[in-house]
Amino acid sequence: MIPFNKPYFTGKETKYIKKAVDFGHISGNGSYTKKCQDFFQEKYNIKKALLTTSCTDALEMCAILLNIKKGDEVIMPSFTFVSTANAFVLRGAKIVFVDSKKENPNIDESKIESLITKKTKAIVVVHYAGVACEMNTILDIVKKHNLYLVEDAAQAINSYYKGKPLGSFGHLSTFSFHETKNIQCGEGGMLAINDKQFIDRAEVIWEKGTNRSAFFRGEVDKYGWVDIGSSFLPSELNAAFLWAQLKRVQKIQNKRIHIWDSYYKRLSQLSQFGVKLPFIDNYATNNAHMFYFICNSTSERSDLINFLKKENIYAVFHYQSLHKSDFYKKKYDREELKYSNLFSDRLIRIPLYFELSDSQLEFIQDSIIKFYE
Length: 373
What we know:
Helix content is 36%, strand content 13%. With 373 residues, the protein is of the alpha/beta class. Helix 2 (31-43) runs parallel beside helix 8, helix 3 (55-65) runs parallel beside helix 4 (82-89) and helix 9 packs parallel to helix 12.
């Protein structure tokens, strides 16, 4: 079986984990945590980075930092993972869902402004497959209406909009290092803070609501409970693992882009069968987080998945529109979201991971083409 995903190991992970163990500090916020955070601050122009146990935790920190409360409205795409919405629902927000673009699953920036009300507190954008949303338009809307912007950049490490790194636009942004991501540590995430007004409080929330970080820097003579918070920081073992991955980020990216480009070149011929391949606008780069395409119908997608399974190839679909979920459908009272539903019903993802060989890649391509022919 060719799996959909296989986590890549650089070979240095256990070396750095052993160093952390030998040093005797394996709880959070140690030297490897600092190395990883400095990497993002320096390479991706982020003012302050805080490692978290997951991207979900980073999103929940965003909701706390923005003081989201009952009655506030938060605008975001429906075609996203449940954590994007759940983080704000937990604080009492009403989620206002926006349709995807016709060309790709990203939020349709032209539909955002009409949904803004006096209760709107924030806009959350999701860079699907690591491909940038149309940020200039969104930034103009945020500035015009004095709103907060959160980037869910879970899939978007090492991806750019007009030369600027994704995750550096929002007041707050989040990344994922889940084992399905380009750079991974099994489970992990990061909060990126680009508005300095949030830095001090973010550290407190990150450290269980205490000013512990300030204490260890010698800024206060004792630390205590000063705000709400939780245990959002990961252990040094996770950070050490992640550091091994970050040191090889370009090697990993080069291989993934090679695979993605091979898929795109060979599978472009599927357009004769009505299949639509990923669309990347000229303002965005491609970090090869995933390769997907759009089938003509739900039944065609199911048949293709089953066909590939018989060929020992594991392909999967992706998000189901959140506005149609069992949890939210009774709360949703607006128009149907045509393209979000289309991507939910027809989008298929095929294997893409570092150790995918050229022979396996060719076999996957041959099998897909055989299905359509």
